[in-house]
Structure formats: structure tokens, C-alpha cells
Amino acid sequence: MSIKETFIQDILSGYQYKGEKIVLGKAKLDGEVLSEAEISVALKTMNRHGLIAGATGTGKTKSLQILAEQLSLKGVPTLLMDIKGDLSGIAAPGEENKAIIERQQLLGIDYTPMGAPVEFLSLSHEPGARLRATVTEFGPILFSKILELNDTQTGIISIVFKYCDDKGYPLLDLKDIREVLRYLSDDDRGKQELASTYGSISKASLGTILRKIVTLEQQGADRFFGEPSFDVNDLLKTKDEKGVVSIIRLTDIQNRPSLFSTFMMSLLAEIYESFPETGDPDKPKLVIFIDEAHLIFKEASKTLLDQMETMVKLIRSKGVGLFFCTQVPGDVPDGVLGQLGLKIQHALRGFTAKDRKQIQKAVENYPITSYFKADEVITQLGIGEAFVTALNEKGIPTPLAYTYMRAPLSRMDVLSETEIETIIGKSELVDKYSQEIDRESAYEMLTQRLKTEENPQPAQPKKPEGRPKKEKSVFETIITDSTTKSFIRTIGN
Ligand SMILES: Nc1ncnc2c1ncn2[C@@H]1O[C@H](COP(=O)(O)OP(=O)(O)OP(=O)(O)O)[C@@H](O)[C@H]1O
Ligand SMILES: [Mg+2]
Fold first, then answer.
1. How far is the CA of 127 from the centre of ligand 1 (A)?
2. Ligand 1 pocket, 347 CB below 6 A?
3. Rounded to two decimals, what is the model's pTM?
4. Residues 124-145 pLDDT 10s
5. pLDDT in tens, 420-439
6. 318 CB under 6 A from ligand 1?
7. CB atoms within 10 A of CB 222
């Protein structure tokens, strides 16, 4: 047998799965695309996480798009963190241009342009269904982590949460917790009240925590905290048997790392908590893609990194896969990197000593191949080409394959504003989360209490208040189940 024939044999046996698969492209050897050597990933292993890496402009985002749209076709919903705002095109059919036709001919794969069902979600001012969570839902541990509090300060936050729980002051948004902290620092009132039951707390520590909350607010987190909180089950939708692709537009958040970290942590914790254990399913329940993932890791605190590592480990059993898309594998902490099953490595550049170290690091993590010198070829991969290694259904890595990737079936360019508006206009999810509920919570209750204490006389003719009085909503039940939630959120500490 010639080398080529042996190679094809190796690929065919290495990439053979019993269950359903997602085709990524075809293997390439000595400059030739071998249309019989199909490179695919077993659907069953998509909860074993993955990495898409490569220098700028090498095709990472398109690989992400291919995975997400193919998952959709298999009925698997996905969630895309769209940091650069270049993923919306997945909603529209691709354009059959010359480059795409040539690519597909080389691959021997038919090209049927199609878009996927898309929902736009938003954490900030971007249009889309609003994502929110209450402070209580975060629980004291996670909330402290966002603020990067030390152990003593975390202890204080736990006491503050307990105090609010005991008093029946719901902590919904940041102004609630701010108001409670202010009240508790007041020498004449809160400080004494707290000291009598829970022990005294240093005013300086409360001041520090308050300042950190203000910083978080300045980063725009005030829009994120509140009600109604987002139900993660809304990420599990299908439409006409296709998985819905939920895109969180984060373009205006790049410079607010702690908001992004906060959000990622809470989302993963919420998913972990809400989804049942799935055992060993034939396909994942949800796959989350984080494009430009270096942003979360670079800016993340040690606590977030630890949390991520633990979450990556645990969330698999809920049928959820996490895919990180970034320039060099070294952007992802080792503890996370070691847990990623699928690797799609686009070209790396070897200009500097640091670059070459990154190349070594990438190559070390691959199965050894005798067909090419991975550390050399990795710098020569063309656009839309990548080294691929996946896990087979037994969890064993598939052979390293120089892969000529297929083209996305959806549009490679972004949607126009009008196209986005049309999708948002039709979305039931946007309607569901568009109304902000500001029910009576700690802020209003404490303000009212202080007023009554200062002025015990009954009903005087009132001046209109600065804040309009909100009607009590049907949600007027105090969330007391924070114990279970915070228990789960302490996992990983
Ligand atoms: N699989 C593919 N099929 C067809 N064209 C592709 C493919 N992958 C990449 N390309 C082409 O290369 C361009 C750049 O790809 P892409 O945007 O995915 O790069 P990237 O690695 O995400 O870059 P950046 O680091 O700037 O985000 C695409 O606009 C497209 O023209
Ligand atoms: Mg990109």
C-alpha cells in the first residue's frame, strides 16, 4: 500500500463512529485534499468540550459557525458568546460564491445554503432578550467572587445575605445591596442592630465592599441585576427540529471584563444547578461557544479561573459542552485546556521565541503522527484549514489530521441592522424578558423603614417621591431558598 492509501485507511478507521457525527471537512496530505478521508466529530462526545485556536484571520470563527450550524441541524441548541459581533450571519443562508463552490468541489461535499433559527440575547444595551439575575440568586459566595472580595469580606457578605433573609428584605438588584450596606454602616441604626444578633462588622470593610459595588455598577452591571431573571431552560429550544442558536451580543462589553466574568460564572452555575444529570446521552443538550475567549481568561481573577476549571469538569455530566475559541492554546489555563476533547487548531505564527513556545505547547498536546511534522506544518496551514483531533466514542483521541474545513452553510458575513431587527421583532423570548420588574425589595423597604422611624407621625400629606411607587407584583414571594443555591455555588472552593 502507498503512504497515501495507508493514511486514508488510518483516517477512516480513526474517525469511524457508531452514532451520529458532524462532518468538519476532509483530510489533506502532501497538498492534496483527499475527499474519501472524512474528518468528523462524534455527536455523543460534544459534551467533552473543545478548543478552536489559531492566529488572526485563519478561520476560527468560521469553524465555530460550522459546528454551531451542524449542531442545530442535529437538533442541538447552542449558545454563542459573540464578542466581536461577527456571528449573526448564522441566521441567513450562505452565498454561493466562487471560493465556496471551489472549496466544496475539492471536498466532494454538496453545498445547500441555509440559515439556522436564531435568538438574540443581550446583557447590556445591545438589542435582544434581556438577560438578568437577582443578587439573591447569585448567593453570597458567587457575589463575593464577582467583587473579588477577600475571605473576611466574603464572610461579611454572607452575614449581610443572612440578615436580609431573616428580615425578609429581597436582594434583587445592586441598589438593594448597596442600600443595605449603607444602612448597616450607620452607627445609630444598622450597625447596632447587626451587632446585637450577628456580631459587629467593621465600617471600613463595609465601605470597601460598597466601593466595589459602585465600580461594578459603573461597568454597567446594574442592567444585569434584577428581575425577571433569565430561565436557562429558554436556551434549550428547537424550531422545526433544528436546535435554536442563541447569540449573546457582547460587542459593547469587551472593555468590561468583570461584567463578562460575572455573567459567565452565574450562567454556568445556573445551568449546573437547573439541568438534571444526563448520564451518557447520545447527543449534548446544549453547547456553549465562547469566541475571543482570551478576553475572559486574561482579565479573570484567580477565583474565576478556579471556578471555570471546576465548572468545565462538572457541567459535562449535565450534557453541556463548552468550546473556547482563541488565538493560542496558551490563552486557556492548563486546568481547562487538559479537559478539552475536540481540538481544531488553525495556523499559528512562529515569529518570536514566545510564538515558538506556543507552537511547542500546542503540538505536545496532540497525538503523534508520522505523516507530517506537526510543529512545522502548523505554521503553514492555509485559511480554513486546521489540525483536528477529536475523541472517539470510547474517549480515545482520534489521529491528528490536517483538515481542509468545509464552508459554513450560513452566511459568512454579518446580518444587516434591519435583518437583526426583523428577528428580534418576531422573538417571543424578547417579549418575555423585555419588561423590567422592580418589585418592592430591600431598597424600598429600608427607605420606607427609615422614613417611618424618622417621622413616626401617621400619614401626613405626602410630596410626590423621586422614585415612582411600583405595584407589588405576583413575584412578591421572598426568595428564601438561597441556601441550596449557595451550597452549589460553593463547589469548587
Ligand atoms: N471554513 C471556511 N470556509 C470558507 N472560507 C473560510 C473558512 N474559514 C475561513 N474562511 C475565510 O477566512 C476569513 C477569516 O475567517 P475567520 O473570520 O473565521 O477568522 P478568525 O480566525 O476568526 O479571525 P479573527 O482572529 O480575526 O477573529 C473568512 O471571512 C472567510 O473568508
Ligand atoms: Mg474570529
1. 25
2. no
3. 0.86
4. 778 899 988 889 888 887 788 7
5. 999 999 999 999 998 777 77
6. no
7. 16
